[in-house]
Amino acid sequence: MSKKKNKIVEKDYGMDDIEMEIIEEEPRAKIIMNIIFIIIIALGIMIIADVVCVIKYDKGPYFAIRTKVYDDGGTEVYYGLGYKVIKYHQEQGRRDTQLGLWTMKYNTKPTEVEALDLAIEFRNAPEDTAKKYAHQFVRITGRIYKIKDDEIILRYHDPDDYYTLKIKCPLAEKTDLSSLEKGMETTVLGTIDSFTLKTKKNPNQVNMSNCFTE
Questions:
Q1: How would DSSP label each residue in 150-209?
Q2: Domain containing 207: what range?
Q3: In a domain, 3, yes or no
Q4: Has residue 12 been placed in a domain?
Q5: Could you tell me the end-to-end alpha-carbon distance of the chain, in angstroms, rounded to an integer?
Q6: For residue 42, is it within any domain?
Q7: Are 104 and 187 in the same domain?
Q8: Where are the beta strands (DSSP E) in the chain?
């Protein structure tokens, strides 16, 4: 019997073949990197858009998923890519919007403060006080200075106007204010939006939003 010998055929790759393989792999890698880069940019734009809309315009969020609605009047919780939004809507309480990390907790307990104490704090350390109370949900007690259809203005007044402070409290809903009158002490729930430094004509001022009387 004749035996057949298996021949091993060796194929030599020249430099041209190696260069062709490298050239083919380079565009593929660039395309993948470009796609990843575009996705990252798009996600960044979505996050920035939501943050700006929520913080500056109190709108949205548009790129977050609603995960919960509380039975407190309709407070909604949204989760986005690394951030969380809580849109408070208590029947008579907190009505502001908060943006933070996923660890941010639902909190409807107001910070208690007297108009006198707030006036002293703001007069002595305006920047620190503004940072401390900015966007805080508070319960402020003070005397009524003026009543409008949709707004109550509280005021602490000292004879020298050194610590005098006005607190503007626009109401979240139409409210019957017939039982209130100027000079009466009352308590207001709401969110502090900003502080305004005194001028020659006006004292220091706190600007609130979404307020309710108690």
A1: SEEEEEE--TTSSS-EEEEEEBSS----TT--TT-EEEEEEEEEEEE---SSS-EEEEEE
A2: 111-213
A3: no
A4: no
A5: 111
A6: yes
A7: no
A8: 65-69, 76-79, 84-87, 97-100, 111-114, 137-147, 151-156, 165-170, 185-196, 204-213
Cα–Cα dist 38/181, whole Å: 60
Do the beta carbons of residue 174 and residue 214 sit within 8 Å?
no
Q: Which residue in this structure is represented by tokens 């969020």?
A: 61
Q: Summarize pLDDT for 137-178 with one digit per residue, the tens.
A: 999 999 999 998 899 999 999 988 899 999 999 999 999 999
pLDDT in tens, 73-121: 999 999 999 999 999 999 999 999 999 999 999 999 999 999 999 999 9
Contact 55, 42 (CB under 8 A): no
Looking at the domain assignment, is residue 205 inside a domain?
yes
Q: How confident is the model at residue 16 (pLDDT cuts 50, 70, 90)?
A: low
Query: Model-level pTM?
Result: 0.79
Quick one: CA torsion of 146, 152, 153, 154, rounded to 10 degrees?
A: 100
On the question of a cis peptide bond just before residue 61, with omega within 30 degrees of 0, the verdict is yes
